[in-house]
Structures are given as C-alpha cells and as structure tokens.
C-alpha cells in the first residue's frame, strides 16, 4: 500500500508570508519549518501556522495539487 501525502499551506503572521508544501509526514515537516531547519526560506519567517491541509492518495496527486495551488496563488492578481 502506498503512503498518503498531503499538501499544506503555512502562514507567518509576523511577516505576512505564505508557504505551500507537500509531504508524507506533516508533523515532522512542521518541526523542520519551525525548529530544525537552519538554511531555508521558512527559517527566515518563523513561526509558521498551518492554515490548510489536503490529504491525497499518492505523491503524484500531491505534487499535482501543489503545483495547482502555487499557480493560483502566484497568478491570482491576474485572474
């Protein structure tokens, strides 16, 4: 059986930033974003809060959804 994956959106209220990601282990991924990672985009804008999660059946589905959300967020000012 294949692992489930999720697409998530994080929000940094302090910096008014969003981050969109996908993972198969959201709890550990959040620890990375908020505590452990030292040289990443997300370490600069801590703390992060999860504002959206969608569970998907495969990595392929999660990646597809991730790209769709990124496109909608980045180009929403045009649409």
Structure description:
- The protein is 34% helix and 29% strand.
- The radius of gyration is 13 Å and the shape is globular.
- The chain has a 3-stranded antiparallel beta sheet with strand order 2-1-3.
- The model has no long low-confidence stretch (mean pLDDT 91).
- The chain contains 2 helices and 3 strands, in the order ββαβα.
- The N and C termini lie far apart (39 Å).
- With 79 residues, it is an alpha+beta fold.
- The longest helix has 16 residues, at 59-74.
- The relative contact order is 0.26.
Which oligomerization state do the chains in this entry correspond to?
single chain
Ends apart, CA distance between termini: 39 Å
| SS-derived structural category | alpha+beta
Taken in chain order, the helices and strands follow as EEHEH
* Largest sheet composition: 3 strands, antiparallel
What fraction, in percent, of the residue positions are helical? 25-40%
Number of separate helices: 2
Total beta strand runs: 3
Strand content: 25-35%
Largest sheet: spatial strand order: 2-1-3
Shape summary: globular
* Rg from Cα: 13 Å
Low-confidence segments, ≥5 residues, pLDDT <50? none
Mean pLDDT: 91
Q: In terms of topology, how is this protein built?
A:
Blueprint: E1 5-12, E2 17-23, H1 26-36, E3 49-56, H2 59-74
Summarize the structure in short.
This protein is α+β, with helices and mostly antiparallel strands. The protein contains 2 helices and 3 strands, in the order E-E-H-E-H.
């Amino acid at each position: 059986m294949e692992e489930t994956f999720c697409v998530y959106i994080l929000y940094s209220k302090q910096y008014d930033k969003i981050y969109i990601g996908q993972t198969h282990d959201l709890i550990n991924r959040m620890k990375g974003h908020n505590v452990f990672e030292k040289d990443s985009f997300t370490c600069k804008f801590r703390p992060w809060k999860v504002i959206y999660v969608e569970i998907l059946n495969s990595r392929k589905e999660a990646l597809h959804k991730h790209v769709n959300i990124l496109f909608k967020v980045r180009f929403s000012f045009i649409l």
